[in-house]
Amino acid sequence: MNAKIFFGSKEATKENLSERKSPYDGEVVSTAPICDAEDTLKALKIAQAASTSAKASTLARRCSWLLDVADKLKENKEDIAQTITDEVGKPITFARVEVERCIETVTLSAETMRTMHGETINTDAMASGKKALAYFSRVPVGVVACITPFNFPLNLVAHKLAPALVAGNTVVLKPTPEAPLTAYKFAKLFIESEFAIKDALSVVYGDAEVGGTLVSSDIPRVISFTGSVPVGNIITKSAGIKKVGLELGGNAATYIDKSADLDLAASRCSLGAFVNSGQVCISLQRIYVNADIYDEFASKMAEETKKLVVGSPYNEDTFMGPLIDDEAAERAMGWVQSAIEEGAVALLPPSRDGRMFNPCVMANVTDDMAIVCEEVFAPIVSLVKVDDFDDALPRMNNSPYGLQFSVFTNDLKITQRAIEELDAGGIVINDMPTLRFDIQPYGGVKLSGVGREGPRFAIEEMTEIKSVVIC
Predict the structure, then answer these.
(1) Is 303 marked active-site?
(2) Whole-model pTM?
(3) Which domains does the chain possess?
């Protein structure tokens, strides 16, 4: 099936098409028009023209719009899950989970917007003031430009589209080139809904030229981007005066205390390190283990990892499918070989067959190894021996990233210190740092980004406060 451009509510295509090949078997699974700067500007102008009607629409209509899309997602769950698996190689079981999460994200956005409101202000609270009727309300920004990645090609689109549209904005979406058909099918549900606002959503496809045009244009008032740090850096330099939300990389870490339930910790850490083949910005990459239980935990971690099924993403019992492309697989093997040369030990033999890369647990890792200093974005996790939490804490924080961290402990003092002293946007106690509930605020500190996602928090990012005083 071919993805098509949405210039507002109208479909269009072009002669030049890009082919998307399955990362699993190399078969062509979708095509998409190759857009350029001219197409992008056309979409932006349509969004700008439609922003007046979007702003004037009733909240009831916009909520009904999103809930209708959620219902249609339920009806088309299997087809969209299969499309995700086709385009990015995500195991079908997890693709279905992504569709379920997307349904929740869209529904939550509608429910959240119903209760979003301003408040009245006491203008006579200070001696310099006087009694007046004063309040503030939230109003849509106008046009939002959204740029999304491959690893969650449906739900991360939902985390941008749903809050932006329900808040009364119009949107131009540039989805990942790796999953154009997934985004097209999702956008089509919005555009064909009986509650749709005409021309409120446009979709264009491409890479740097399209993204650069979106970012540098004066039309969008918000840029919402999920992707790499280098691209995020380019965006901040070229965006100009507008809101920029960046959800960037991570180097998630956890600490395993000697008081922890080691069976639970090993089970959850193997899931957190290797789900989606490690291609998650909060994928568990660094495990700091108390020296007293290091060997025991390492053994349990290796045993849990052996249980994971690597294979065809179309098989129901597959846990890990292929990496997104050959470059990612080559880079992953490079990480492992570099660590081994520096003295690390692979507890499971590193193995690669094309884009298929078996999960790898690395022991005897030290802080100066590149494998723990940078984001690997692959199914590799490193075990680092530490004396205690006092030893682990500065090592966990010694990273340019700060998205999510966790600790496994039954010591209340360590729990309290972790919450207060770990430098990250999210802290998880007694579970993997890869844990995310879509209702939560989500985002990081340092190079991990700026701003927060999650329906309520994204709506706040995609609206502006209007202050009113009636004397």
Answers:
(1) no
(2) 0.97
(3) 5-248+448-470 (3.40.605.10), 252-437 (3.40.309.10)
